[in-house]
Amino acid sequence: MLCEECGEKEAEKDVLLDGNSVSMCSRCASISSGVVVDKPTQDQVDDSKRMWRVKEILARSAGIPYTEKPVNLPNTLRTVSLEDLRRVDRDKKSAYQVRAESRMKRYSEESEKKNSADNIIEEAKTFKEEVD
Ligand SMILES: [Zn+2]
Question: Which helix (H) or strand (E) holds 14?
Fold first, then answer.
């Protein structure tokens, strides 16, 4: 079938023009003021026939690629076992312990520094007294 616009080339596209579908060659279609209707691909046809997940629709409308992966529910929505609670408690306790130990270490280092500073001051005083 030839292009309805120029009548020279092979018609490849359907163009909606003033409410009518006109078959045009790709050159005429690109310069026409109508809307070029592309035939859907097989994937698009298949997509239109299947059920869509809400997440999928939202992702698509937001322009985000949708990938199906296991959902990581927050702890509150998962069943929490007593062992889970005990483990959390243990983890917290050990975290506190580590923090307390490092604080103690820092404190002892600081007091050591202070002691040596005090010693230097004391030595300086003694030295000054000796000189005087
Ligand atoms: Zn044409």
Answer: strand 13-17
